[in-house]
Automatic annotation (TrEMBL):
The keyword Phosphoprotein does not apply. Keywords: Oxidoreductase. This is 3-hydroxybutyryl-CoA dehydrogenase. GO terms for molecular function: 3-hydroxybutyryl-CoA dehydrogenase activity; NAD+ binding. Residues 12-191 form the 3-hydroxyacyl-CoA dehydrogenase NAD binding domain.
Length: 291
Protein backbone atom coordinates (compact mmCIF):
# COMPACT_ATOMS: atom_id res chain seq x y z
CA UNK A 1 0.00 0.00 0.00
CA UNK A 2 2.94 2.35 0.64
CA UNK A 3 4.31 4.43 -2.19
CA UNK A 4 1.14 4.44 -4.28
CA UNK A 5 0.31 8.03 -3.46
CA UNK A 6 -1.57 9.45 -6.42
CA UNK A 7 -2.65 12.73 -4.92
CA UNK A 8 0.13 15.24 -4.49
CA UNK A 9 0.02 16.36 -0.86
CA UNK A 10 2.46 19.18 -0.17
CA UNK A 11 0.16 21.22 1.97
CA UNK A 12 -2.38 20.10 4.53
CA UNK A 13 -5.33 21.97 5.96
CA UNK A 14 -6.36 21.26 9.54
CA UNK A 15 -9.75 22.50 10.72
CA UNK A 16 -9.71 23.03 14.49
CA UNK A 17 -6.67 23.87 16.59
CA UNK A 18 -7.65 22.14 19.84
CA UNK A 19 -5.76 19.28 21.47
CA UNK A 20 -6.06 17.02 18.43
CA UNK A 21 -5.93 19.63 15.66
CA UNK A 22 -2.80 21.25 17.08
CA UNK A 23 -1.16 17.83 17.43
CA UNK A 24 -2.06 16.87 13.86
CA UNK A 25 -0.74 20.20 12.55
CA UNK A 26 2.48 19.64 14.50
CA UNK A 27 3.16 16.14 13.12
CA UNK A 28 2.40 17.28 9.56
CA UNK A 29 4.74 20.26 9.88
CA UNK A 30 7.41 18.11 11.52
CA UNK A 31 7.20 15.89 8.42
CA UNK A 32 8.11 18.94 6.31
CA UNK A 33 4.65 19.84 5.00
CA UNK A 34 3.10 23.27 4.83
CA UNK A 35 0.11 23.38 7.14
CA UNK A 36 -2.79 25.79 7.42
CA UNK A 37 -4.82 25.59 10.62
CA UNK A 38 -8.30 27.07 10.50
CA UNK A 39 -9.85 28.26 13.76
CA UNK A 40 -13.06 30.18 14.40
CA UNK A 41 -11.56 33.37 15.82
CA UNK A 42 -8.18 35.10 15.88
CA UNK A 43 -8.02 34.48 19.63
CA UNK A 44 -8.62 30.73 19.15
CA UNK A 45 -5.99 30.68 16.38
CA UNK A 46 -3.54 32.31 18.78
CA UNK A 47 -4.27 29.67 21.44
CA UNK A 48 -3.74 26.93 18.82
CA UNK A 49 -0.38 28.44 17.90
CA UNK A 50 0.65 28.51 21.56
CA UNK A 51 -0.43 24.89 21.90
CA UNK A 52 1.84 23.81 19.04
CA UNK A 53 4.70 25.99 20.31
CA UNK A 54 4.35 24.49 23.80
CA UNK A 55 4.45 20.95 22.46
CA UNK A 56 7.48 21.72 20.29
CA UNK A 57 9.22 23.19 23.34
CA UNK A 58 8.48 19.95 25.22
CA UNK A 59 9.92 17.93 22.33
CA UNK A 60 13.07 20.06 22.45
CA UNK A 61 13.23 19.73 26.25
CA UNK A 62 12.94 15.93 25.95
CA UNK A 63 15.73 15.83 23.37
CA UNK A 64 13.36 14.72 20.56
CA UNK A 65 13.86 17.79 18.40
CA UNK A 66 16.60 20.36 17.77
CA UNK A 67 15.67 23.92 18.73
CA UNK A 68 16.23 25.08 15.13
CA UNK A 69 13.92 22.37 13.82
CA UNK A 70 11.22 23.42 16.29
CA UNK A 71 11.38 26.97 14.98
CA UNK A 72 11.30 25.79 11.35
CA UNK A 73 8.34 23.51 12.15
CA UNK A 74 6.33 26.35 13.66
CA UNK A 75 7.28 28.48 10.65
CA UNK A 76 5.60 25.97 8.33
CA UNK A 77 2.23 26.35 10.08
CA UNK A 78 -0.06 29.22 9.18
CA UNK A 79 -3.11 30.02 11.31
CA UNK A 80 -6.24 31.50 9.78
CA UNK A 81 -9.95 31.99 10.32
CA UNK A 82 -10.82 31.72 6.61
CA UNK A 83 -11.83 28.44 4.95
CA UNK A 84 -10.78 30.00 1.62
CA UNK A 85 -7.13 29.78 2.72
CA UNK A 86 -7.47 26.01 2.39
CA UNK A 87 -8.39 26.20 -1.31
CA UNK A 88 -5.24 24.56 -2.69
CA UNK A 89 -4.53 21.88 -0.08
CA UNK A 90 -4.29 18.25 -1.20
CA UNK A 91 -5.58 17.00 2.14
CA UNK A 92 -7.87 18.61 4.70
CA UNK A 93 -8.26 17.04 8.12
CA UNK A 94 -11.24 18.06 10.25
CA UNK A 95 -10.48 18.01 13.98
CA UNK A 96 -13.21 20.13 15.56
CA UNK A 97 -15.26 19.20 18.64
CA UNK A 98 -16.93 15.78 18.66
CA UNK A 99 -20.29 17.29 17.72
CA UNK A 100 -22.11 15.99 14.65
CA UNK A 101 -23.81 19.27 13.71
CA UNK A 102 -20.54 21.19 13.91
CA UNK A 103 -18.69 18.58 11.88
CA UNK A 104 -21.40 18.49 9.20
CA UNK A 105 -21.11 22.25 8.83
CA UNK A 106 -17.32 22.01 8.53
CA UNK A 107 -17.56 19.33 5.81
CA UNK A 108 -20.01 21.43 3.81
CA UNK A 109 -17.62 24.39 4.07
CA UNK A 110 -14.60 22.30 3.15
CA UNK A 111 -16.45 20.98 0.12
CA UNK A 112 -17.11 24.55 -0.99
CA UNK A 113 -13.56 25.72 -0.27
CA UNK A 114 -11.34 22.94 -1.66
CA UNK A 115 -10.63 23.56 -5.32
CA UNK A 116 -8.66 20.43 -6.21
CA UNK A 117 -10.93 17.62 -7.43
CA UNK A 118 -8.40 15.06 -6.14
CA UNK A 119 -8.24 16.59 -2.63
CA UNK A 120 -8.76 14.16 0.25
CA UNK A 121 -11.26 15.17 2.91
CA UNK A 122 -10.57 13.49 6.23
CA UNK A 123 -12.14 13.51 9.66
CA UNK A 124 -10.37 12.84 12.94
CA UNK A 125 -13.68 11.87 14.52
CA UNK A 126 -13.59 9.10 17.13
CA UNK A 127 -17.17 8.02 16.82
CA UNK A 128 -19.31 9.93 14.32
CA UNK A 129 -20.10 7.92 11.16
CA UNK A 130 -17.81 8.89 8.27
CA UNK A 131 -20.75 8.18 5.96
CA UNK A 132 -22.80 11.00 7.52
CA UNK A 133 -19.92 13.48 7.25
CA UNK A 134 -19.25 12.39 3.65
CA UNK A 135 -22.87 13.07 2.67
CA UNK A 136 -22.48 16.71 3.74
CA UNK A 137 -20.18 17.08 0.72
CA UNK A 138 -20.74 16.76 -3.01
CA UNK A 139 -17.85 14.26 -3.17
CA UNK A 140 -18.53 11.56 -0.58
CA UNK A 141 -16.17 9.10 -2.30
CA UNK A 142 -13.25 11.45 -1.42
CA UNK A 143 -13.99 11.33 2.33
CA UNK A 144 -12.10 9.07 4.74
CA UNK A 145 -11.56 8.80 8.51
CA UNK A 146 -8.00 9.44 9.70
CA UNK A 147 -8.17 9.05 13.46
CA UNK A 148 -5.11 10.06 15.51
CA UNK A 149 -4.44 9.43 19.21
CA UNK A 150 -3.64 11.90 21.95
CA UNK A 151 -0.89 13.05 22.37
CA UNK A 152 -0.59 13.03 18.59
CA UNK A 153 3.18 13.73 18.43
CA UNK A 154 3.86 10.81 20.76
CA UNK A 155 1.40 8.02 19.91
CA UNK A 156 2.22 6.10 16.72
CA UNK A 157 -1.27 4.82 15.83
CA UNK A 158 -3.78 6.03 13.26
CA UNK A 159 -7.11 4.34 12.55
CA UNK A 160 -8.01 4.48 8.85
CA UNK A 161 -11.77 4.40 8.43
CA UNK A 162 -13.57 3.89 5.16
CA UNK A 163 -17.22 4.57 4.52
CA UNK A 164 -19.41 2.46 2.24
CA UNK A 165 -18.55 4.71 -0.69
CA UNK A 166 -14.93 5.80 -0.06
CA UNK A 167 -12.92 5.18 -3.25
CA UNK A 168 -10.18 2.56 -2.75
CA UNK A 169 -7.63 4.98 -4.28
CA UNK A 170 -8.52 7.54 -1.61
CA UNK A 171 -7.83 5.03 1.15
CA UNK A 172 -4.58 3.99 -0.53
CA UNK A 173 -3.45 7.63 -0.81
CA UNK A 174 -4.45 8.42 2.77
CA UNK A 175 -2.65 5.35 4.07
CA UNK A 176 0.48 6.00 1.99
CA UNK A 177 0.52 9.53 3.38
CA UNK A 178 0.02 8.58 7.02
CA UNK A 179 2.59 5.78 6.90
CA UNK A 180 5.11 7.10 4.38
CA UNK A 181 5.06 10.81 5.19
CA UNK A 182 3.94 11.02 8.83
CA UNK A 183 5.63 7.77 9.89
CA UNK A 184 2.59 6.50 11.79
CA UNK A 185 1.26 2.93 11.92
CA UNK A 186 -2.19 2.30 10.46
CA UNK A 187 -4.89 -0.11 11.49
CA UNK A 188 -8.04 -0.29 9.41
CA UNK A 189 -11.59 -0.15 10.59
CA UNK A 190 -14.94 -0.05 8.91
CA UNK A 191 -17.31 2.75 9.72
CA UNK A 192 -18.94 1.97 13.06
CA UNK A 193 -19.04 4.23 16.12
CA UNK A 194 -15.87 3.85 18.20
CA UNK A 195 -13.95 2.05 15.44
CA UNK A 196 -11.45 -0.39 17.00
CA UNK A 197 -9.72 1.41 19.85
CA UNK A 198 -12.56 3.40 21.40
CA UNK A 199 -14.89 0.40 21.17
CA UNK A 200 -12.52 -1.22 23.67
CA UNK A 201 -11.27 1.84 25.55
CA UNK A 202 -14.48 3.77 26.24
CA UNK A 203 -16.32 1.01 28.19
CA UNK A 204 -13.17 0.68 30.31
CA UNK A 205 -13.01 4.42 31.05
CA UNK A 206 -16.73 4.55 31.83
CA UNK A 207 -16.35 1.55 34.16
CA UNK A 208 -13.68 3.43 36.09
CA UNK A 209 -16.03 6.42 36.45
CA UNK A 210 -18.83 4.12 37.67
CA UNK A 211 -16.43 2.56 40.15
CA UNK A 212 -15.55 6.00 41.54
CA UNK A 213 -19.21 7.06 41.51
CA UNK A 214 -20.27 4.02 43.50
CA UNK A 215 -17.70 4.94 46.15
CA UNK A 216 -15.82 1.71 46.44
CA UNK A 217 -12.39 3.09 45.52
CA UNK A 218 -10.75 6.51 45.26
CA UNK A 219 -9.62 8.07 41.96
CA UNK A 220 -6.00 7.75 43.08
CA UNK A 221 -6.39 4.06 43.90
CA UNK A 222 -8.28 3.22 40.70
CA UNK A 223 -5.54 4.84 38.64
CA UNK A 224 -2.72 3.38 40.66
CA UNK A 225 -4.31 -0.04 40.33
CA UNK A 226 -4.08 0.02 36.54
CA UNK A 227 -0.64 1.67 36.42
CA UNK A 228 1.05 -0.65 38.90
CA UNK A 229 -1.13 -3.70 38.40
CA UNK A 230 -1.35 -3.73 34.61
CA UNK A 231 1.61 -1.52 33.57
CA UNK A 232 -0.60 0.99 31.77
CA UNK A 233 1.21 4.34 31.28
CA UNK A 234 -1.62 6.10 33.10
CA UNK A 235 -4.79 5.07 34.92
CA UNK A 236 -8.27 5.34 33.35
CA UNK A 237 -9.38 8.48 35.19
CA UNK A 238 -6.16 10.35 34.38
CA UNK A 239 -6.50 9.16 30.78
CA UNK A 240 -10.11 10.41 30.65
CA UNK A 241 -8.77 13.75 31.94
CA UNK A 242 -6.15 13.75 29.18
CA UNK A 243 -8.69 13.03 26.43
CA UNK A 244 -11.10 15.63 27.88
CA UNK A 245 -14.25 14.67 29.77
CA UNK A 246 -16.45 16.48 27.24
CA UNK A 247 -14.87 14.42 24.47
CA UNK A 248 -15.19 11.16 26.40
CA UNK A 249 -18.87 11.96 26.99
CA UNK A 250 -19.48 12.84 23.34
CA UNK A 251 -17.81 9.63 22.13
CA UNK A 252 -19.80 7.55 24.63
CA UNK A 253 -23.04 9.21 23.52
CA UNK A 254 -22.34 8.49 19.83
CA UNK A 255 -21.54 4.88 20.64
CA UNK A 256 -24.63 4.53 22.83
CA UNK A 257 -26.79 6.07 20.12
CA UNK A 258 -25.49 3.56 17.60
CA UNK A 259 -25.55 0.36 19.70
CA UNK A 260 -27.94 1.07 22.63
CA UNK A 261 -25.47 -0.84 24.75
CA UNK A 262 -25.67 0.19 28.47
CA UNK A 263 -21.90 -0.22 28.73
CA UNK A 264 -21.51 2.83 26.46
CA UNK A 265 -23.96 5.05 28.34
CA UNK A 266 -22.11 7.94 30.06
CA UNK A 267 -22.54 7.74 33.85
CA UNK A 268 -24.21 10.69 35.64
CA UNK A 269 -20.99 11.73 37.42
CA UNK A 270 -19.25 12.20 34.07
CA UNK A 271 -22.11 14.27 32.68
CA UNK A 272 -22.26 16.44 35.83
CA UNK A 273 -18.54 17.10 35.64
CA UNK A 274 -18.90 18.26 32.04
CA UNK A 275 -21.81 20.53 33.08
CA UNK A 276 -19.58 21.95 35.82
CA UNK A 277 -16.80 22.72 33.32
CA UNK A 278 -14.52 20.16 34.95
CA UNK A 279 -13.19 18.90 31.65
CA UNK A 280 -9.90 17.36 32.73
CA UNK A 281 -6.39 18.50 32.03
CA UNK A 282 -7.39 21.22 29.56
CA UNK A 283 -9.59 23.02 32.13
CA UNK A 284 -7.21 22.45 35.07
CA UNK A 285 -9.45 19.99 36.89
CA UNK A 286 -11.19 16.71 36.18
CA UNK A 287 -10.86 13.57 38.26
CA UNK A 288 -7.48 15.01 39.23
CA UNK A 289 -6.21 18.59 39.58
CA UNK A 290 -3.64 20.04 37.18
CA UNK A 291 -1.40 23.04 37.74
N1 LIG B 1 7.01 15.40 20.76
C1 LIG B 1 7.69 14.23 20.66
N2 LIG B 1 7.88 13.38 21.68
C2 LIG B 1 7.39 13.72 22.87
C3 LIG B 1 6.68 14.93 23.06
C4 LIG B 1 6.50 15.77 21.95
N3 LIG B 1 5.81 16.92 22.03
N4 LIG B 1 6.30 15.00 24.35
C5 LIG B 1 6.75 13.86 24.95
N5 LIG B 1 7.40 13.11 24.04
C6 LIG B 1 7.98 11.80 24.27
C7 LIG B 1 9.01 11.85 25.37
O1 LIG B 1 10.28 12.19 24.87
C8 LIG B 1 8.96 10.43 25.88
O2 LIG B 1 9.72 9.57 25.01
P1 LIG B 1 10.89 8.65 25.61
O3 LIG B 1 10.20 7.74 26.60
O4 LIG B 1 11.41 7.94 24.39
O5 LIG B 1 11.84 9.58 26.24
C9 LIG B 1 7.52 10.03 25.72
O6 LIG B 1 6.99 10.90 24.71
C10 LIG B 1 6.73 10.17 26.99
O7 LIG B 1 6.82 11.52 27.42
P2 LIG B 1 6.98 11.99 28.92
O8 LIG B 1 8.06 11.17 29.60
O9 LIG B 1 7.10 13.48 28.92
O10 LIG B 1 5.62 11.70 29.54
P3 LIG B 1 5.11 10.41 30.27
O11 LIG B 1 6.10 9.33 30.34
O12 LIG B 1 4.49 10.96 31.51
O13 LIG B 1 3.99 9.94 29.25
C11 LIG B 1 2.05 10.04 27.95
C12 LIG B 1 2.92 10.77 28.94
C13 LIG B 1 2.75 9.94 26.61
C14 LIG B 1 0.79 10.87 27.79
C15 LIG B 1 1.78 8.60 28.50
O14 LIG B 1 1.32 8.69 29.80
C16 LIG B 1 0.78 7.86 27.66
O15 LIG B 1 1.08 7.35 26.58
N6 LIG B 1 -0.48 7.79 28.18
C17 LIG B 1 -1.56 7.08 27.48
C18 LIG B 1 -2.12 7.96 26.43
C19 LIG B 1 -3.24 7.29 25.69
O16 LIG B 1 -3.67 6.18 25.98
N7 LIG B 1 -3.74 8.01 24.69
C20 LIG B 1 -4.83 7.53 23.88
C21 LIG B 1 -6.04 8.29 24.24
S1 LIG B 1 -7.41 7.75 23.26
C22 LIG B 1 -7.40 8.83 21.99
O17 LIG B 1 -6.65 9.73 21.87
C23 LIG B 1 -8.40 8.57 20.94
C24 LIG B 1 -9.72 9.10 21.15
O18 LIG B 1 -10.48 9.08 20.20
C25 LIG B 1 -10.23 9.52 22.44
Amino acid sequence: MQGVMVVDIVSVGVVGGGLMGAGIAEVCARAGLDVIVREVTDAAAQVARQRVAGSLDRAVGRGKLAAGDAEATLGRIRFTTAFEDLTDVGLAIEAVAEDEAVKLEVFAQLDAALARPDALLASNTSSIPIMKLAMATGRPEQVVGIHFFNPVPVLPLVEMVTSLVTRPEVVADAEAFVVGVLGKTVIRSSDRAGFVVNALLVPYLLSAVRMLESGFATAADIDQGMVLGCAHPMGPLRLADLIGLDTVTAIAQSMYQEFREPLYSPPPLLMRMVSAGLLGRKSGRGFHAYA
